[in-house]
Amino acid sequence: MNHLAAFGATRSDIKPRHALLTPESHEWITQPDWPGAELAWLISPDLGAQLAMGIVRCAEACEAQPPAKGIARFLFCLEGHARLTDGTVLSPEDFCFQPPGLGGGLHFTAGAKAVVFEWRFLPRGPLPNPVHGSLKKIAGRPLRGDDRLVVQKMLPEDSSFDFEFNIMNFQPGASLAYVETHFMEHGLLMLDGGGVYRLDRDWYPVTAGDAIWMGPHVPQWFGALGRSPARYLICKNYNRSPLSPR
């Protein structure tokens, strides 16, 4: 038992429009559509979100069934390996996007761990094709001209995609250029390093393994602290107008 749990404490904090979900409070469960796997679902519509985000881990080899009808899935491999139905193998820092009805299930090797996102897809014309790739093959771009803050975009910049998934890379001391407020929501997982995240009027120290949900119009800002770079994976609903169906 960790020292926080021993005293009934946690860094997790759930508010009406945002949430910080920290590892000491994860509840690991099994589900029929993920035979052999354990899951910690961190973000869900019950929280007020339009997406679900969870961590999947496999002590032994395990499976994931295809998403339900109308549901898209994005997976980012953290540890071990996952194999797609077409035989493609995902290693750590590889990813895949499965549009509704086009992508099949997944097979995980023993010791695998991944973060998975699922959401009700909003089509704009024909569905995009499945996508898989490796983060190490994606060039980073300075965000708004700041070479200390680099973004790696994992999905094509194409209006047929209704979500985007990016890796944000911060050098020590780098920060977002301003406090952002917009109608899109975010799901986020800290991968490395740490810093301070502002959500509404709250300020949270964050570190690797922490997850965040940011609802629509929540003021948000991050600054990296410490001697090592900070990275996080972040998604947002995209290519939608404020009046798009929820």
From TrEMBL:
Domain Cupin type-2: 167-233
GO molecular function: ureidoglycine aminohydrolase activity
Alphabetical list of PANTHER family matching this protein: (S)-UREIDOGLYCINE AMINOHYDROLASE (PTHR34571:SF1)
Protein name per UniProt: Cupin type-2 domain-containing protein
Naturally occurring in which organism (per UniProt): Paracoccus haematequi
